[in-house]
Amino acid sequence: MTPDVPRPATELPGGAEVTEGREDHEDREVAGHHEATGDLTDPNSLDGPGTRDAPATPATLEIVEYTDPLCPWAWGSEPVFRRLRAALAGDDRIRWRRVYCILFDHDDDPAPDPAAETAWYARYVEDISAHTHAPRALRLSRVAASSWPASLVAKAAEAQGTEVADRVLRRLRESVFVLGEPADTPESALAAVSGVPGLDADRLAVEAASAEVLARVRADHAEARRPVAEVQSVHGGDSPHPGAAKETPDGQHRYALPTLLVRSAAGHRVVPGWRPYEEYVAAVTELSRGLLPAPTTPHPESPPQPALASTTLPPATALTRYRTLTDPERTHLTDATPWPPPGAVRMDTANGPLWLHPDEAAVHPATAPSPPAAPR
To answer: What pTM was computed for the model?
Structure first.
């Protein structure tokens, strides 16, 4: 099963075909910093049906992250998104909401040759990781059968607080891009998040299987297929993944992953695809209306500099806060002091290491000791 991206045909052994997943590099109309008028209290204030659960007051800035736990571009964007979330942390006027878009859907056609499909997808992830420098698994066991189980677990975890939800989502991403075993069943998704600090695993299992959480993820799925007009045509400059809306098998369009939609009473900005940190900062500060300091330009010929709070931490502090860090995250989130911090556990992948806090290493599926085999 493959994600719903149109791909040029590539012949598989035995004459079967799979299509090649790559972003178009054709010139497109610029998108990213477009304004729309409308009241945030009106859920239909954007182009067509709007974002559900809109902020309650015009003073609030909402950031909507369209994502999927098993998306390789979203995994590669983790350093920038972690940095942005850290820069905005602590201001209760800013709301960050995740929408799970279901990259691998139940209705996707099964692969005619699963082994060949897995080999193709592993090459696809390798190509993406060459751009993002994100870790990738030494061996991918299979292409994910469905994004629904991981999305249901991630959505259910939100009821246990932001920190737990962030760590649950991170483990679900690591299941495929570090372990090579995508969390694509209810059992594997729950196993992937075992040992997350502060997580009530029994409650998570019950709520992930509930009708309420299913309804919320179904609403996410529908919202992702109502993209704003700007992402229908996108020019990404040097980006290998500009983020134009994707056509789905049923003829709809959905946001490319990841996409950030920033909304305020003044309008909205959309930053789709693979983008540098500065583009996200610009989208936020342009709509802040005094909520955040504007970017500064120290010299007329200098590009604007991000004005958000510093996110760099001493290495030991960063590893304690985030539990696991990739090398790109180490660059974005830690200061220039020596690395690694004492006690850090290094796990090598096919594209650089993943660094684990020692407490995380004790419970992480990648490094935790396997339970003893049951007696025969």
So the answer is: 0.83
